[in-house]
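4.2 Preliminary Data

To establish feasibility before requesting continued support, the project team ran the inverse folding procedure on a target of 432 residues. The structure was first converted into the token representation described in Section 3, and no sequence information of any kind was made available to the design step. The complete token record follows.
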């Protein structure tokens, strides 16, 4: 049976990079422009982003179709095309809102549905291809590599587009988004070309499986799986609460331009990348610390960074603090995220019949719901608080509340995750 080479794994990681490049423009840049440039309630982009996460709850369906059809390349490329078109339509919808709000909103809703469907189809089929065609000893490393490449794509796109977007104009925004979209589809097509065909003997259409509802009910009855699901949900609500409000906060509280706040998002995701890399090197290569310790450190550090970001709005020189504090938030977020991935992999094979796929689906569903809910809660809370206080205080209160959730998640991790387990992120050294 022929398995993916390291080169093929890195090629497939380029698809994740492209996914992140488009998504960051819709969840960060357009969100900031709606709240600051158009002075719209933060809840509006929050609901739009929440919509794309809601559509991603169709991931089990896309996975089942690629499993039974045996043509994952098609879903990867067509999903990326839908995501790219949705990203461009989202930018066009924003530009249209300034002239005709209702038609622009309708177009934006359609665009975010396409974004969610594209991410679900392309991303799920990609992970299925990796899972079935990668040697078991390389699967964890392959997952880590592709995750890091996605974060790298987010950070680089946010930084480069942020610099190119100053001085801001609607025409420039459309050109930049269109360029990223075309590049993403092109790179994706080249990245997956011929890989599935060369591994046709490894990838076979799946047979009929246990009905999803039955499988989920059995797993939910397992105490460890159930408790871990609750931990993932709470921690991911905290993780995503700042996603839609950090850039508007920087624009309203410190007067940063659209390009500067987009670069701020790039700095945050750069921190995520290095946080993940740190855990990978320290925990796997140097064997430092337990899985539980890294999860707890990531959650507690994220809480401290959020409190610092909130305090920056109360300082005279807060503008100088916001970027390093945001990078620190990204670093600890990355540390927590990759350790949580390790916990998922460690627990996925436990319980009855070792239903790894169903367990990962359950936790993936919890993450998708938490991501959408966290974004909406953060944006809605800011809108509500701004009726009673100024922007800096309103955003600051939400950041502090988010820090509180991370501290609760820290306590939960101490009780749920076994200390002897290490992040299952694999050996990154090429070769068997």
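Position-by-position output of the design step:
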């Amino acid at each position: 049976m022929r398995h993916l080479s390291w080169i093929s794994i890195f090629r497939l990681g380029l698809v994740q990079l492209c996914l992140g490049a488009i998504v960051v423009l819709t969840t960060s840049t357009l969100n900031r422009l709606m709240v600051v440039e158009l002075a719209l309630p933060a809840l509006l982009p929050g609901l739009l982003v929440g919509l794309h996460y809601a559509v991603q709850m169709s991931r089990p369906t896309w996975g089942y179709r690629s499993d039974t059809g045996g043509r994952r390349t098609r879903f990867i490329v067509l999903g990326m095309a839908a995501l790219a078109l949705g990203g461009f339509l989202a930018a066009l919808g924003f530009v249209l809102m300034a002239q005709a709000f209702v038609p622009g909103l309708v177009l934006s809703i359609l665009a975010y549905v396409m974004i969610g469907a594209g991410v679900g189809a392309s991303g799920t089929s990609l992970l299925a291809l990796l899972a079935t065609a990668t040697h078991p000893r390389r699967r964890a490393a392959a997952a880590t590599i592709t995750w890091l490449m996605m974060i790298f794509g987010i950070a680089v796109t946010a930084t480069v587009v942020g610099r190119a977007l100053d001085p801001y104009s609607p025409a420039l925004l459309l050109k930049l988004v269109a360029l990223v979209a075309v590049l993403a589809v092109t790179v994706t097509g080249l990245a997956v070309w011929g890989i599935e065909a060369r591994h046709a003997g490894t990838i076979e259409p799946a047979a009929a499986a246990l009905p999803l509802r039955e499988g989920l009910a059995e797993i939910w009855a397992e105490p460890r799986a159930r408790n871990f699901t609750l931990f993932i949900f709470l921690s991911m609500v905290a993780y995503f609460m700042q996603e839609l409000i950090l850039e508007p906060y920087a624009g309203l509280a410190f007067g940063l331009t659209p390009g500067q706040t987009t670069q701020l998002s790039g700095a945050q995701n750069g921190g995520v990348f290095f946080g993940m890399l740190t855990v990978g090197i320290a925990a796997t290569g140097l064997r430092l610390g337990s899985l539980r310790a890294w999860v707890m450190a990531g959650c507690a550090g994220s809480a401290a960074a959020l409190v610092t970001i909130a305090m920056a709005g109360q300082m005279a020189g807060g503008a100088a603090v916001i970027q390093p504090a945001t990078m620190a938030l990204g670093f600890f977020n990355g540390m927590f995220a990759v350790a949580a991935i390790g916990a998922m992999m460690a627990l996925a094979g436990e319980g009855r019949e070792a239903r790894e796929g169903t367990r990962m689906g359950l936790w993936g569903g919890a993450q998708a719901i938490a991501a959408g809910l966290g974004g909406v809660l953060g944006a809605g809370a800011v809108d509500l608080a701004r009726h009673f206080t100024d922007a800096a205080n309103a955003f600051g209160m939400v950041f502090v509340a988010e820090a509180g959730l991370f501290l609760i998640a820290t306590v939960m991790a101490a009780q749920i995750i076994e200390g002897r387990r290490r992040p299952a992120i694999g050996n990154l050294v090429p070769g068997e």
